[in-house]
Amino acid sequence: MVGRSYQPLLGFIVLLLCTKPDLGSSIQAGDAKIGCKEREREALLKFKEDISNDFGILSSWGREKSKKDCCKWKGVICSNQTSHITKLDLSSYKYKDEYRHLRGKISPSLLELQQLNHLDLSGSDFEGRSMPEFIGSLTKMRYLNLSSTNFSGPIPSQLGNLSNLNYLDLSGDSNVSSENLDWLSGLSSLTYLSLNQVNLNKAIRWAETINKLPFLIDLNLKSCDLPSPITPSLSIFNSSLSLTFLDLSFNQLRTTSIFPWLFNFNSSLVHLDLSYNLLQGSPSDAFENMASLESLDLSWNQLKGEIPKSFSSSLVFLDLSNNQLQGSIPETLGNLVSLRFLYLVRNQLGGEIPTSFNNLCNLRILKLQQNNLTGLLAKNFLACANDRLERLDLSFNKFVGSVPDFVGFSSLKRLFLGHNQFNGTLPGSIAQLAQLEFLKIPSNSLQGNVSEAHLSSLFKLQYLDLSSNPMLDVKLSANWVPPFQLRHIFLASCKLGPRFPGWLRTQKRVGWLDISSSGISGVTPEWFWNIMPNINRLNISNNQITGVVPNSSVEFSRYPQIDMRSNYLEGSIPLFIWQAGWLDLSRNMFSGSISSLCEVSRGASAYLDLSNNLLSGELPDCWGQWEGLVVLNLENNNFSGKIPNSIGSLQAIESLHLRNNKLTGELPSSLKNCTKLRVVDLVRNELFGNIPSWIGRSLSNLIVLNLRFNEFYGSIPEELCQLKKLQILDLSNNNISGMIPRCFNNLTAMVERRRLIITYNYTIPCFMGFSRPSSYIDKQIVQWKGREFEYERTLGLLKSIDLSSNELSGEIPREVTDLLDLISLNLSRNYLIRLIPPTIGRLTALDVLDLSRNRLSGEIPPNLSQIQRLSVLDLSNNDLSGKIPHGTQLQSFNSSTYEGNPKLCGPPLVKKCQGDGKEEDSPNNEGQVQEEENDLWFYIGVALGFIVGFWGVCFTLLHNISWRNAKFKSLRKQKN
């Protein structure tokens, strides 16, 4: 009976198996669940064959029995009803400190996944291949994310066939482009679109296409090189009425013609970002009509005019920073009562902060720095927002008066008031800012005392900057233990000394410490060097600190920037200091050798200045360990010996200063490897030999070459004329002979009228492979008008040639007068002969001209008087002759300018020239009178001889008829 009762059920099951064979295979697999389709499983395995499985992302995919069900593979999701694969999510992901991703190509086998509606391969690396066209055949697709996948080339128009697509993200690949966006027209269901970084610079009708996407909510076209719309206004017909998020930042939008198109979305738009474009003109008042707008970013454009008086009353975020806006801040901004974030940074705004800002009760961040705002800050300044305001930045303006009492600002975390004109004392209410993390009030006129009472409640303080308030006396007890651990301390140019601030010993996390020019004297305490491990920048310069820097065992966690210049530190330089990434120990009393820098396995410093000390010994020969060095200054010490060959290993070096030492020998040929050199200063050493010709061939970036006061000999190599950028050439006070090269007119930097500041941009290593950018403006001591001056920012303005005090011979080549922007020319104290070039007047930029103590002859060229800027002229002790050319400039110089030229005459010399009238009595007057009398008798004799001879011939012709006839016949024949 029991067996019979199951017969109908058994027959039903058999019938079911016959009609639904797939279901039978599913049950055969062992589960109640439906397994994946075999055809789709094979398609995924073919996909895997084209992928390099570097991170084991597809390790769960395989043909093994245990991996038979592809619905259980990583990243694969199947339909519970049909077992078809519907979702494939193989996006990259972060594991510990690395991103794991796929690499290879997309196989067309994915076409077998006809029910696929979700595909995410974002973050994969498809190695610059083209985006596959066949993806456009996956017509069930609703979600497609191919962002940051290293595709290149055009977006296939076939993507426009995905009519069911709701979400499309192709962002993050700058090598992908699209000449137009017409293919988007078929994606009528699209709600999210991101093409960030896709090149759309030819898609001039992009705005029209966006209008055809009626359900679009979120549009991201950031960094697409997007052009301005070609029409000033676009119809709202068929345009999206639901667009809420629009990011058009970092594009090439130039005109405010974009605004009418934007106003199509008045009723829906919530977020609008137009930052980092090229928008010009005035911002529109029509933003007031965008009733739903909560976030508006117009920063980093070229907008001019005044701030609009009206905006959407719903605004929460408003950024107009980094434009050219002028006028006052309108009072109507105070009506935006929902505003939380207001940025008006770096404009040209003036006037006072509107009193209506007291209505902004929800304000969290207010940044108004780098404008021309003025006036006093009222006592009730921002009173309504005092319990909500977190950041306030009013720095780099012109505010005056006292720093306001910030009573009740219980949420304030960052307070920036620097670079204004605040005076008076630091208010005691600062102590009530319990949440304060950053306190910056530098470069004002604060005075009075800063005591523990100001800071004792600031438990969260990390950044303290009161620098450049020279009347501010920071009176903190040496035994005080602050409640905070500061990371940045800036107390430069305050009254901090004379004792070293003892409270600093408690600060174990300091990354940046600047106590320069603060009146500190005496020896640094031993504990000071124990707070160094985390230091990033240390500046104790321009104090009166004495004593020896201990040879501490401290090891920096990074490569700090250390500035100890202009103190009285002495002794040898300790080993740990060489770990710095930037080091200035100049103008101290350090002594001994610097050979310890060779004990550093790899010098990290990009800048090393040990000048103006008492250092001695030979230069170390291990510069190959300092390959990142850009600036090396060892001038004004007592170094001796030869310049080592390893100096040529400094292939990054741009500035080399070794002046005023006792260095000997020839210049090492390895120096020609330092091809980036721009300044070479070897003045006042004992270097000798020929000036190497490789300087001109290899150091093509040289701007300054100064070899003054050495013992170089031989001729000036013509290869120096290849230095196209050279502006200062000083070879004076050597033993150089031969002629001045005629190719000096190839020094084109002295021909062209241009000005520059000699600045070096470089990076300073920090830690873990990171570095930070830095720069340095070079300085140079130049012989100018007979004295030595140090030039820095104006160094690039000088264009000078000084070859004085050598043994040069021959004439001054005319080619020198082609250097039209030359400011100083000194060829004195040589053996130059012949004429001053007659084209010397072309050098109209000359301020200094010294040709004295040579053997020049001839007249002074008249056009020399045309050089109006000439303030120093010396032509003395030559063999010049003739009259000094007339001109206000030349006659304004003292007679010593021309002395030692006995054949010169005319003002300003006492000696007058012939024809200038009676001369004053002088030892030569008597001889001159006698010479004039002899000349008179000579002319009288000539006249009498002519008269006697003429009348003698006439008398003969009149009285001798035959001779007369013969003579006239002869004259007629000659005429015929």
Kindly describe this structure.
The chain has 976 residues and is an alpha/beta fold. The chain has 10 helices and 66 strands. It has a 32-stranded mixed beta sheet, with no helix packed on it. α1 (2-19) crosses α2 (21-28). The termini are far apart. Mean pLDDT is 87; it is low at 1-33, 232-239, 918-939, 953-959 and 961-976.
What are the main properties of this structure?
globular, disordered C terminus, 32-stranded mixed β-sheet, 10 helices, 15-stranded parallel β-sheet, 976 residues, alpha/beta
Question: Concise description?
Answer:
The protein contains ten helices and 66 strands. By secondary structure, the chain is an alpha/beta fold.
How do the helices and strands line up, and which of them pair or pack?
Elements: H1 2-19, H2 21-28, H3 38-49, E1 51-52, E2 76-78, E3 85-89, E4 93-95, E5 98-100, E6 103-104, E7 118-120, E8 143-145, E9 153-154, E10 167-169, E11 176-177, E12 192-194, H4 206-210, E13 218-220, E14 245-247, H5 258-262, E15 271-273, E16 280-281, E17 295-297, E18 302-303, E19 317-319, E20 326-328, E21 341-343, E22 348-351, E23 365-367, E24 372-375, E25 391-393, E26 398-402, E27 414-416, E28 421-424, E29 438-440, E30 445-450, H6 452-455, E31 463-465, E32 471-474, E33 488-490, E34 512-514, E35 521-523, E36 537-539, E37 544-548, E38 561-563, E39 568-571, E40 582-584, E41 589-592, E42 607-609, E43 614-618, E44 631-633, E45 638-642, E46 655-657, E47 662-665, E48 679-681, E49 686-690, H7 694-698, E50 704-706, E51 711-714, E52 728-730, E53 735-739, E54 759-765, E55 771-777, E56 780-784, E57 787-791, E58 800-802, E59 807-810, E60 824-826, E61 831-834, E62 848-850, E63 855-858, E64 872-874, E65 879-883, H8 888-891, E66 903-905, H9 925-959, H10 961-975
Parallel strand pairs: 3-7, 7-8, 8-10, 9-11, 10-12, 12-13, 13-14, 14-15, 15-17, 16-18, 17-19, 19-21, 20-22, 21-23, 22-24, 23-25, 24-26, 25-27, 26-28, 27-29, 28-30, 29-31, 30-32, 31-33, 33-34, 34-36, 35-37, 36-38, 37-39, 38-40, 39-41, 40-42, 41-43, 42-44, 43-45, 44-46, 45-47, 46-48, 47-49, 48-50, ...
Antiparallel strand pairs: 1-6, 2-3, 4-5, 54-55, 56-57
